[in-house]
């Protein structure tokens, strides 16, 4: 290979890496409205960014005391994945992708209650049962976990007892809405916080492990009705059988607002 081809190859690889690492500049507004964590999502107009690959919208707003985070999706498989596997919002006060401080909610399935297993089996077969299962699971999930470095659990508590931390999720009209409010700075009143000030740059991550579909008990080869069986091509689960979600993993480098319009970039 001559020197020209070698240089061309190096340049091509550099361009690919540059494109892959490019950031998307977005605008974020200092909290200029009342934000009520009600799972309705109406307070986030003009403060969201849509991730097409993950089929979710993410919003971030802050004032001088709190960071407000939202995540919304109309994809029922992503919603089911979050309910079953849990969702952790990670915050890196140094602006990177380190899992420094996290809030896990919902916690996901905590172990095989017979009623949940029956509902889950029905949900795989019936669209209306899926909605029933989601509502039932939301009622059962009333605790959150606060995580530190290396995913060490710093505390587990009822969501009503989490000092300074508020979280809400709701599924209505086919849209799953998750909302989180967390203090920026630690204090005697708020022992769990991001540890930053307005104007700082932080890293924010949304992570949910890949959902593994399990065959209902007593069902042998041939697959589930509507899922195409072995070697079949049926859509299943309302046409979503061929679109099983991968691990939900979104990281954002966020420039916190400092009393005026600020920007944050996603990478």
Structural overview:
- By secondary structure, this protein is an alpha+beta fold.
- The protein contains 4 helices and 13 strands.
- The protein has helices at residues 3-20, 76-85, 114-123, 127-140; strands at 24-28, 48-51, 56-62, 66-73, 88-92, 101-104, 143-147, 153-158, 166-172, 175-183, 201-208, 248-255, 262-266.
- The strands form 2 sheets. The chain has an 8-stranded antiparallel β-sheet with strand order 1-13-12-11-5-6-7-8. Strands 2-3-4-10-9 form a 5-stranded antiparallel β-sheet.
- A hairpin with a 5-residue loop joins β7 and β8 (153-158).
- α3 (114-123) runs antiparallel to α4.
- It starts with a helix and ends with a strand.
- The model is unreliable at 3-25 and 221-242 (pLDDT under 50).
Question: What descriptive keywords fit this protein?
Answer:
267 residues; alpha+beta; eight-stranded antiparallel sheet; five-stranded antiparallel sheet; 4 helices; globular; disordered N terminus
Quickly give the structural class: alpha+beta
Number of helices: 4
Helix content: 10-25%
Low-confidence stretches: 3-25, 221-242
Estimate the strand proportion. Answer: 25-35%
Strand order of the largest sheet: 1-13-12-11-5-6-7-8
Strand segment count: 13
Could you give a short description of this structure?
By secondary structure, the protein is of the alpha+beta class. The chain is built from 4 helices and 13 strands.
